[in-house]
Amino acid sequence: MSSAPSALLEAAQALITDQIAHLRTLHQSAHQRLTQLEAELRAAERQLDELVMQGRFLVERGQPVPPGFTQREQQVRKDYEALSSEHATLRHTLRQLDQLIRQIEMSSATLSGSSEGEPADPWAQALRAQVIMGREEERQRLAREVHDGPAQVLANGLMGVERCQTLLASQRFAELGVVLDQLGENAREGLREVRSFIAELRPAKLDEHGLRGALLEYIRRYHEIVNASVKVDIDPLPRLPAEIEIVLYRLVQEALQNARKHAPGAPIAVHLHLHQGNLLLSIRDEGPGFDPREVIRRAGRESWGLTSMRERAELIGAHFVVTTRPGHGTEVTVSLPMVK
């Protein structure tokens, strides 16, 4: 009978191994489709960019739009949006599969232990996987930022240079001067965007002046760019652990960017206070608000942005809440117990 428990564990281990193998097959298939989708998405993106640039050239030159051009652009845009939706859904599915595989592997580790005879540390494995996934998501976010910012500036600059070459060849010097002035202004705006982009990667103010100083500086720049009313009330704070400061900074940053996107022009209030041993952060906008249940019903999950914010908050032991309903704005609150 003494061998019975060992046999049961071996049988359980075999079942888990089979399940992991099957899940990895599904994961590989989904990953192959994701790779294919990314190639199709890049091709559709290039095609759409080309059509948009062609349309701008036609408008700038006062030339008529060819028959069917608008319909073609609309169809390409529709195809691009469909691919983007499928890509987002598949990425979510892959992430769920990754989590499921990690959870099963953690269970398997508790049964088998390591090859050296010591129990494997499943939480260390989960943490390593989380770090890897976090880095990958950050790279994807940076890629989107570069595409929407500096890449667009360069594309517009290239169009302007080609326009200048055309005007120079036809000796239309008065128009050439106007286009060159516009090119210079676009280049200066692009440089400001790149500098802002670099500053947001790792805000130097956070290292120099702490969380309060960095937030005040970011909100000042946000107000200048967005031209929205932002009320700020931040208590003087002691220096906090670096990981807490950067997470709270990113939460404010993400909440303000969400307000810029979904509640343009709406008044915003940012509060950060120490109260009864807790650090309390709130960011409220007076925009249109939304119905979280409707978002989940349509997408099958909470929005990616809110999920990312919630996960960041939980990593530092904070409690994250979003309060909103249609017509009553949106408020993000974070409560972090301060350990003495």
From TrEMBL:
Stretch forming the signal peptide: none
InterPro entries: HATPase_C_sf, HATPase_dom, His_kinase_dom, Sensor_HK_TwoCompSys, Sig_transdc_His_kin_sub3_dim/P
SMART domains: HATPase_c
Highest taxon of source: Bacteria
Recorded coiled-coil stretches: 20-54
Membrane-topology annotation of the record: Multi-pass membrane protein
Cellular compartments annotated: Cell membrane
Principal location class: membrane
GO-annotated molecular function: phosphorelay sensor kinase activity; protein dimerization activity
Residue intervals of the Histidine kinase domain: 248-340
Cellular component GO terms held in the UniProt record: plasma membrane
Keywords: Cell membrane, Coiled coil, Kinase, Membrane, Transferase, Transmembrane, Transmembrane helix, Two-component regulatory system
Pfam families, A to Z: HATPase_c, HisKA_3
Name the record gives this protein: Histidine kinase
Organism of origin: Candidatus Chloroploca asiatica
